[in-house]
Design brief:
By secondary structure, this protein is of the alpha/beta class. The chain contains 13 helices and 13 strands.
Length: 357
């Protein structure tokens, strides 16, 4: 067995050396991306938080990517982001010219959704970003603080994307844990559509990522349309849900403790931790399977230097009104692995049951 491992290592070394001889001269002669167009494929509709995130990156990535290529953003919404993720996984060419900028793709895969064909563990990860979500309710529901959810003036109507989506399940898990009854409406294409539904009164309860909330949700707060209740939090290093320090709102765990006098427990509480893990890697930047390692490394360096660019930081802070928490390369791989570790069998079963209801 040891001999086989050494033989495999030797073979891989020889192959890598041979590839270097073939590829390196080409890279040395001309930048890889010179004269090329790179598309950032966003799996949600234009105007939403994932789209905003992608378009800020698109403005600064060219100067950090060898050859200064043209960067375009393409929106491919539908099925709670699954259509875009499936496309990058099984249709897009592994040539480094298509980069997926995803949100909300963990739970559909963990739950084994019938339309899921992508595998986040089989797609080279370029980078990721952590971001909590803010839960809010229409002001005319008579809920001014989280504890008022136990006695709303109007029935709570939750709005989301798909039954397997992290947004939908995070909202529903919290209400189930609190013992609050609600009606559930799903199938909206993106956050922009949810805002319209809130304003029309089709739904009265939903959430937005911090990006979405700070760039659009707060406008509805100022206009008196909605009331922010709490942030859903992130997955902490000890495996518990912790507050995202970029929001002053209490985390759901803190809200639960305030209302019930203890921390949430049981399968639903464990399931909520998976949801928190998904938010810890809410923005998932990836490329199609079998993308050459050389291109993956080039993209990782480009995204890292983009995130470190003072001009990028200044604009993202101004637009999103908070500083990004980003992971690149191996750091992102570690966070990805932690999310899947959080998916214990009892937690998965609780999520699957809820997704079917």
């Amino acid at each position: 067995m040891r001999f086989k491992r050494l033989y495999g290592l030797f073979g891989a070394t020889v192959i890598a050396a041979a590839l270097t001889q073939v590829i390196a001269p080409a890279f040395a002669q001309e930048p890889v991306y010179k004269g090329k167009t790179v598309r950032l494929l966003v799996n949600f509709s234009a105007g939403g938080p994932t789209d905003i995130f992608g378009r800020i990156i698109a403005r600064y990535l060219p100067k950090h990517l060898a050859g200064n290529p043209v960067i375009v953003v393409q929106n491919m919404p539908g099925a709670g982001g699954i259509i875009g993720a499936n496309y990058v996984y099984e249709v897009a060419k592994p040539d480094g010219l298509t980069v997926g900028v995803f949100s909300g793709m963990y739970l559909p895969q963990i739950l084994g959704g019938p339309t899921v064909r992508y595998d986040l563990n089989n797609m080279p990860i370029i980078a990721g970003a952590a971001e909590t979500s803010v839960v809010y309710i229409r002001a005319d529901a008579g809920v001014k603080a989280p504890e008022d959810l136990l006695k709303p003036a109007k029935p709570i109507v939750v709005g989301g994307f798909t039954r397997e989506n992290n947004k939908d399940l995070g909202l529903r898990l919290a209400l189930e844990l609190l013992g609050v009854s609600y009606r559930y409406v799903t199938g909206y294409a993106g956050v922009a559509e949810l805002r319209v539904a809130i304003q029309r009164g089709e739904i009265n309860y939903t959430s937005e990522s911090l990006t979405g909330y700070n760039t659009g949700g707060v406008l509805m707060v100022r206009e008196g349309v909605v009331v922010p209740l709490y942030q859903e939090g992130l997955l902490g290093p000890e495996g518990d849900t912790v507050r995202d320090p970029r929001s002053d709102l209490l985390s759901f765990r803190e809200v639960f403790r305030k209302i019930k006098g203890s921390d949430p427990s049981g399968p639903l509480a464990e399931a909520f931790k998976i949801s928190g893990g998904s938010r810890t890697m809410l923005r998932f930047i990836t490329v199609p399977p079998k993308t050459p390692t050389e291109l993956v490394q080039i993209l990782r360096r480009a995204f890292r230097t983009t995130f470190e660019d003072p001009e990028f930081k200044a604009e993202s802070d101004r637009i999103m009104r908070f500083q990004l928490f980003t992971y690149v390369g191996e750091e992102a791989e570690k966070v990805n692995a932690a999310v899947f570790r959080a998916a214990t069998i009892p937690a998965r079963e609780a999520l699957k049951k809820m997704a079917q209801e």
